[in-house]
Write a structure and sequence with these properties.
Blueprint: H1 15-32, H2 48-52, H3 59-62, H4 65-75, E1 84-88, H5 94-102, E2 107-112, H6 115-124, E3 130-134, E4 147-153, H7 162-172, E5 173-186, H8 190-200, E6 202-209, H9 211-220, H10 222-232, H11 236-246, H12 252-258, E7 262-271
Parallel strand pairs: 1-2, 1-4, 2-3, 4-5
Antiparallel strand pairs: 5-7, 6-7
Helix pairs in contact: 4-5, 7-8, 10-11
Bound molecules: S-adenosylmethionine (SAM).
The site of S-adenosylmethionine has 20 residues, from helix 5.
């Protein structure tokens, strides 16, 4: 595989390579951002409603506004106030922090593969009811029927075992609980994804094609993303890899979106009550 394609192709790598790759990306961001200012690793989202009446954010939260928007749209159909919520693939914890402060769940647990990023999240975010644990999407360290909702944002595409993940989500959700899901797939895999939800036994409540919203966010946020990367990363190879990973304008990922070869969808799924 040509070096410049590593970031673009990570989800197609053999499963054994994906975990070390995430460890590497987390390490790279962590070494360039010791104060944990970068709190999101997603492509962002813009829509008319959020543009005409933007979410009221603190100055600090507003730096990554479009990434916040992606979380906001992901959970906006379900009221999470007072609920027990799990997030799988929480990354640097920004979405968990946003939801726990602004949507007031009773508890919110963020889970990710990477031990060091989990440690940094627990150090950085200390809101009541919010915690972070290390674990893997297809082996969730929780008892059956613990959560009212599971949040999953731009993480599932690289799981080695998508059905294992969905089976685990179903196990840890209470009857009637929701999976709030947003992620990309190659266009031809859209139906595969839907059949996986069906096979796992979820009822599909909401489906939205959010690709135009994600592409617009990448375009509007491009200068900020490129400036951050170019200021900190001097190696040519890492620069290219980081821009691919961030989906900056000109990257192969961005072009796959623009050409309609890759799509981005939001789903709300429900575990049946019986
Ligand atoms: C693109 S990042 C998105 C992070 C976060 N959801 C956000 O929007 O900022 C994908 C995250 O999924 C995590 N991840 C990848 N494979 C995983 C797995 N098998 N189990 C749990 N997390 C995983 C990665 O470590 C990474 O933090």
């Amino acid at each position: 595989m040509p070096r410049r394609n590593i970031a673009e192709k990570y989800a197609e790598m053999t499963p054994g390579w994906r975990k070390p790759l995430w460890t590497f990306f987390h390490w790279l961001i962590q070494t360039k951002d010791r104060n944990h200012r970068i709190r999101f690793m997603n492509y962002g989202y813009i829509d008319q409603e959020l543009s005409s009446s933007p979410i009221q954010l603190t100055e600090e939260d507003a730096v990554e506004r479009f990434c916040v928007n992606l979380y906001h749209q992901n959970v906006s159909d379900i009221n999470l106030q007072g609920k027990e919520v799990l997030e799988v693939g929480c990354g640097r914890g920004g979405g968990a922090d946003y939801i726990s402060r602004y949507m007031k769940p009773k508890t919110y647990v963020g889970l990710d593969l990477n031990k060091k990023v989990i440690k940094a999240c627990n150090r950085t975010f200390t809101n009541p009811g919010l915690s972070f644990v290390q674990g893997c999407a297809d082996d969730l360290p929780f008892e059956d029927e613990k959560f009212d909702a599971v949040v999953n944002v731009e993480s599932s595409r690289c799981y080695p075992d998508m059905m294992g993940f969905l089976t685990e989500v179903k196990r840890v959700l209470k009857p009637g609980g929701h999976l709030l899901f947003s992620d990309m797939r190659y266009t031809e895999d859209h139906m595969v994804l839907k059949s996986q939800f069906e096979e796992a036994g979820f009822e599909l409540l909401v489906e939205k094609n959010i690709l135009p919203n994600v592409v617009e966010a990448l375009e509007v946020d491009d200068v900020r993303r490129k400036n951050w990367i170019r200021k900190r990363i001097k190696s040519k190879f890492l620069l290219k890899t980081s821009e691919e990973f961030s989906g900056t304008v000109g990257s192969r990922r961005y072009q796959l979106f623009k050409d309609g070869k890759m799509g981005y969808w939001h789903f709300v799924l429900q575990k049946s009550v019986d």
